[in-house]
Specification:
The complex is a heterodimer. By secondary structure, chain A is α+β, with helices and mostly antiparallel strands. Chain A contains eleven helices and twelve strands. In chain A, helix 7 packs across helix 9. The longest helix of chain B is centred in the N-terminal third of the chain and has 13 residues. The chains are: A alpha+beta, B alpha/beta. Chains A and B meet through strand 11 of A and helix 2, helix 6, helix 7, helix 8 and helix 10 of B.
Chain lengths: 351, 257
């Protein structure tokens, strides 16, 4: 399905004084629930907040990616009751909520949402996801300072996003360059009455982009990557990783493009009513591949590790035409054993 | 899958333990009446005066086995119940009582009793060392939600969905900062079985592994990370020894080369 944000080139660009960022926030907050990176316990999280002062646009990354807003970690799909011996869903009024505005998403996370859209609004569309995505306004943020684990330039998902947003903010020092990526983004710019950007702003943005790209020290060479992977199925690196990996599943939970989930019924004690639940699942867990009679497709830990890397860097591309990794570095940051796709690919290449 | 019994007769037995897990049954305050309506607590000494002899449909056993008397008794219990569930970490794999297993019985007996002559203890073990067990409710103490899931599954005649992947999964789903990664606190979450809702790490305390090993745990690799985080071999050994030192997985963790 097509989102309004899919407009190709920037429809409009404006200069926004730093102090005027509050005007943009206010204009959005008038009709949206605002969510943005917020600091808490020494880490950053995307969180709903009404307060621009709490927003940390200098964040590097968050624990969980923005997919949690469209596809919650744990949720009740519906409640049910027993009716004439069979189970029937309860009729429930869908609560009307104001649409969401995500403020300050980096390129990696914007691309990740575009990839999830292919999964969840493609051949088999998830209506709840599609609805939430279509009504969400995205203010992206050009990333000037890559974190120590970042490698988004490998997949051109960053540091500056090129699509998938309604507005894109780029910090040019004294002011922000705001570019519209959709008709509704352009409409909001119009409404703000901001001063149009000039070629100097664009030049400065290009300069900032070059500076940011030069700061990246980590890279996955994508040239010939699928071919490399297809030949590396028996590579000794998988056995070495098997000794390291804790099978904890953390890498997939924090991944912005992982989309596997588990569904189960939680029946109430009356055995007449209950709810159907859904939660993020992980291919790294032993019971993920288990089927009836205890058969398991991926009993071997090495096979599970391989599945994650191959899905991101090979299978996803075969299915959807793009790499399934966006280089956000969350899996590297979160792994107690520092298992890292960048070093895995380097090892496969024999670097 | 088994044919469900309309109102199963339930028995609760205590072995070497603190009684905290049976107390958890009574702690399901808001649902206790519904539970009592759904099952018949035929034998539950902590909770009622009149207790009826077996057989029972479902037996919950709390505590570790740590004397020859208890070995005899657990075998008798097994003979009285159709299904046997280990209630809490002591019954599952030895729990805290198994802490003593690294020393001789005489040594630990003398530490506690003035006249240990009459005490004939054996190394503490989970009940499955001596009898077949049908289900495990892990934790110190057990999680009441898991207990309810097990009871409901029994009433429906289905297998309860109690997943035993890592605590990290539950911790990350709540978006907690990783204590190991951000505060350098050694946490057993990556190799410990979930089901607690990551209660300790969600409250800023590292996981001590009370629920025992998770599925396919790589305790040896975690031990290596603990070593790199600055723990001594002795400290690492003690971490793995605390609740489930008798399990093969945690023994491997404690034996850092």
């Amino acid at each position: 399905m097509a989102f309004p944000m899919a407009a190709p080139a920037a429809l409009a660009a404006a200069r926004l004084a730093r102090a005027a960022l509050a005007d943009l926030w206010q204009a959005l907050a008038a009709s949206h629930r605002m969510a943005a990176p917020v600091a808490c316990d020494g880490v950053f999280r995307f969180q709903e907040t009404a307060d621009l002062a709490a927003v940390r646009l200098d964040y590097n990354t968050t624990i969980l990616p923005a997919k949690k807003f469209f596809y919650p970690p744990v949720e009740t799909i519906f409640r049910f009751h027993r009716h004439r011996g069979a189970l029937a869903p309860d009729e429930e009024a869908c609560e009307a909520r104001r649409p969401l505005a995500l403020f300050g998403l980096h390129g990696c996370d914007v691309r990740a949402l575009e990839l999830l859209d292919q999964v969840y609004t493609g051949e088999f569309s998830d209506p709840a996801y599609a609805r939430a995505r279509a009504e969400t306004f995205i203010v992206a943020l050009s990333c000037l300072e890559p974190g120590p684990s970042c490698f988004c330039t490998s997949f051109r998902s960053g540091p500056f996003p090129e699509s998938g947003f309604d507005l894109l903010l780029t910090d040019l020092g004294g002011h922000y360059l705001v570019e519209a990526g959709s008709a509704r983004g352009a409409g909001l710019l119009q409404q703000l009455g901001a001063e149009p950007a000039d070629s100097e702003d664009q030049l400065l943005k290009t300069h900032r982009l070059r500076e940011a790209v030069a700061r990246f020290r980590r890279h996955i060479p994508t040239e010939g990557l699928p071919r490399l992977l297809n030949q590396a199925f028996q590579h000794p690196v998988w056995q070495a990783l098997k000794d390291q990996c804790l099978s904890c599943g953390t890498c997939t939970v924090v991944c912005p493009t992982c989309y596997c989930f588990n569904v189960w019924d939680k029946v109430n004690l009356d055995l007449e009513t209950g709810e159907r639940k859904m939660a993020w699942d992980s291919c790294q867990l032993l019971d993920f591949g288990q089927v009836a009679l205890g058969q398991n497709f991926r009993r071997d830990r090495a096979a599970r590790i391989k599945q994650r890397i191959y899905h991101k860097l090979n299978y996803f591309r075969e299915q959807y035409g793009k790499f399934g990794c966006v280089g956000c570095g969350r899996c590297v940051e979160a792994c107690v054993k520092h298992i890292d796709p960048v070093t895995i690919v380097a090892a496969l290449k024999g670097v | 899958m088994s044919t469900p019994v309309a109102r199963p007769r339930v028995a609760v037995f205590k072995f070497s333990s603190c009684a905290g897990c049976q107390l958890q049954i009574l702690n399901i305050e808001d649902q206790l009446l519904a539970v009592v309506g759904a099952v018949d607590f035929a034998y539950f000494v902590m909770a009622k005066r009149e207790n009826v002899p077996g057989p029972y449909d479902l037996g919950f056993v709390e505590g570790a086995i740590t004397s020859t008397e208890e070995v005899k008794k657990i075998k008798q219990v097994r003979g009285q119940v159709r299904k046997l569930v280990a209630l809490g970490s002591c019954a599952c794999f030895g729990g805290l009582p198994s802490l003593k297993n690294s020393r001789t019985q005489r040594e630990v007996e003398a530490e506690v009793y003035e006249h240990p002559g009459a005490i004939c203890s054996i190394p503490a073990a989970g009940i499955d060392r001596y009898v077949p067990v049908d289900g495990l409710l892990r934790g110190c103490p057990i999680d009441t939600d898991e207990l309810l899931e097990l009871v409901k599954a029994e009433l429906l005649g289905i297998t309860p969905s109690l997943r035993t992947h890592s605590v990290c999964m539950e911790c990350k789903l709540q978006e907690n900062p990783c204590l190991f990664q951000t505060r350098g606190e050694v946490c057993l979450g990556p190799v410990t079985s979930a089901g607690c809702g990551a209660r300790c790490p969600s409250n800023g305390r590292a996981c001590h592994g009370c629920r025992g090993p998770s599925d396919d745990p790589n305790a040896r690799s975690l031990a290596q990370a603990m070593w790199e985080a600055g723990l001594t071999r002795e400290e690492i050994y003690r971490r793995f020894q605390l609740y489930a030192g008798d399990t093969q997985a945690f023994q491997e963790g404690g034996r850092l080369p």
